[in-house]
Amino acid sequence: MAETDAAADGPERKLATIVSADVAAYSRLMAEDEEHTLQIFRGHKEVFDKLVQLHRGRVFNTAGDAILAEFGSAVEAVRCASEIQAALRTRNDQLAAERRVMFRIGVNLGDVMVQGEDLLGDGVNVAARLQGAAEPGGICISGSVYDQIVNKLSLSFKPLGEMSYKDIPQLVRTFAIAEAAGLGTMPSPAHQHRAMNGWRLWPFVAAILLLITGGGAFRVYSHHQRSQAKHARVAERAAQQQVLVDQRRAENETRRLAEANPKSRRKPGHLLRWQSRRMSRRSPIYCAVRPPRQPRCR
Question: Which pTM does this prediction carry?
């Protein structure tokens, strides 16, 4: 009984298809020309509101350039989103390319909480993230919506794989509407995205980063060692060449001085006596060549 009362006191919940839309590059458009951008946006929003009512939906929240709408049927929600993009394309074709106000739309089917006229919960948040993944003028839908509308509408889809969105714990199967009957080709992401769970992906990323970092560090270290060895060889070779140059310079200087000073050319006897002065007086060589006036050695 207590559990039943607690459930009754909790927020009302229901299953709903949420359409989330906003204007691409809205800040840039407002910065360039606020009044003109606001005028175009209001005209686009009137078309948006009329088509939502036509497909038995309701707009439950707006904030700036963002619009949130609720539908009881996924088929009606996607049909309405396609017609909105077709109508807004016609209006934008009359404007210069840089002044076009283009919506991005995301559609999700999920459980939501009812709070007065507003809707809250992951069902709404996923629709907003899908809208962010769409191209300007394009539509992205979740796998839960795709399962409900496949083969029921004249649309072709481009699978984007399981994608990870900010603040959404689970991966979301994502599809872009690539072509719609009466609308032709629609803008869709250029490449297919494959997202893995963050915990499963991290070891691969870490291993790749480790290999890249280790290989880069080894190459830098090897290059540094080779550079040091090369510089050492060059310095040693330069030092050897400098020694040879200094020796040749000394020899040339000695030869030049000898040729320039004739007095430096001593006779053999004088040279012998000059050398003997550096020897000990008791040396036999000194005694043999001593000057006549010196006493004999004892």
Answer: 0.63
